[in-house]
Design a protein that fits this description.
The protein has twelve helices and eleven strands. By secondary structure, it is of the alpha/beta class. Helix 8 links the parallel strand 6 and strand 7. Helix 1 packs across helix 2 and helix 7 packs across helix 8.
Length: about 350
């Protein structure tokens, strides 16, 4: 048997024609405004590559498919689509699927359609849910250009030109955590954030820095990639506790970082919570099974998912179904890592 030749993609045509993937899409769908010369250049490039537009997806887009696409943006930067100990995404996806079913829709978990390896049929879905978009998120740009309804959980921090997003109140929750630590006697609090450029990291850091200035404390911020997991937390602990003026409390936005900080602090001979208090910004198996268990924020992804699905399907169906009530910033679960 001979190897099957890879099918050229919209991105291959875009590179050959020297245009964006959106321009290629508009050329074949008839949407948007594409100059005649550019449209011809795109068609020539497509012909030379043997590209054929996905007529199935185009046909489905003209009718109601009854499916919502879910893009879990943070998972695309982690080490696995099932990262060890992280249950937020599974809880969100499961609740979203059930909520969608109750409202007459199916849910399809997809990778970012702007990436070459993503199936083109994803764009046939009636609408998109996107969790924690990044700065200038290319998927949001594509969906806005294509006129595909969507809702993002968290806002693209660089965009002010869209309103279809849920405020997860990251700054509010950060304030709750910092006040809890202060009430427990902490006087010098540090923050460990990830490197993803989303509103979760950026909003929490901004709220922390403002809080530190109000208290007359120099901000102590350690930055580690989410992919570094517990090892990243250990590195962050060394950075913070090698200082001449180390913190007496640490707020880590991810559970894996929090578990790593706790382990390294104990290895350095410090007591938890006697010498150092620790809080995790996202409850997980790592925070629940640590010794001692780590005080954490339960982000309540089940509630977030139900609110997101109801809000999006209301828009798709032009309905006004009641949206589940309550705050979206999660709740603090106090355990033995704080006093």
């Amino acid at each position: 048997m001979t190897d099957r030749r890879p099918r050229p993609t919209i991105h291959d045509v875009a590179r050959r024609a020297g245009v964006s993937a959106t321009t290629v899409s508009h050329t074949f769908s008839g949407k948007g405004v594409v100059a005649t010369a550019t449209r011809e250049r795109v068609r020539v490039a497509a012909k030379s590559l043997g590209y054929r537009p996905d007529v199935v997806a185009q046909g489905l887009r003209s009718n109601r498919l009854g499916v919502i696409a879910l893009v879990l943006r943070p998972l695309e930067t982690l080490d696995s689509f099932l990262p060890e100990g992280v249950d937020y995404f599974l809880r969100f996806a499961g609740s979203a699927a059930l909520a969608a079913m109750e409202l007459g829709y199916g849910l399809m978990l997809v990778s970012d359609p702007t990436r070459e390896e993503s199936p083109a049929a994803a764009l046939a879905c009636d609408g998109f849910l996107i969790t924690e978009p990044v700065v200038n998120d290319p998927l949001i740009e594509m969906l806005l250009d294509e006129g595909v309804p969507f809702l993002s959980v968290g806002r693209d921090p660089a965009r002010v030109d869209y309103t279809d997003w849920l405020d997860t109140e990251t700054e509010v929750m950060t304030g709750h955590v910092l006040r809890h630590l202060a009430d427990c006697g902490a006087s010098r609090v540090a923050l460990v954030v990830g490197t993803d450029s989303n509103s979760w990291n950026l909003g929490a850091e901004a709220a922390y820095r403002a809080w530190a200035v109000e208290r007359g404390q120099d901000p102590l911020v350690a930055v580690r990639p989410e992919t570094a997991g517990e090892a990243g937390g250990r590195e962050a602990a060394d950075e913070l506790f090698d200082r001449a003026d180390p913190p007496d409390a640490v707020y880590c936005l991810t559970g894996r970082h929090a578990a790593g900080v706790l382990a390294r602090v104990r290895e350095r001979g410090l007591a938890i919570p006697g010498d150092v208090q620790i809080v995790g910004g996202s409850d997980s198996e790592h925070t629940r099974s640590a010794t001692p268990p780590i005080t954490s924020v339960d982000l309540q992804p089940e509630i977030l998912a139900r609110v997101a699905v109801t809000s999006l399907t209301n828009r798709l169906d032009d309905r006004s179904r009641p949206v589940p009530p309550g705050p979206l910033h999660g709740r603090l679960v106090v355990r033995q890592s704080t006093r």
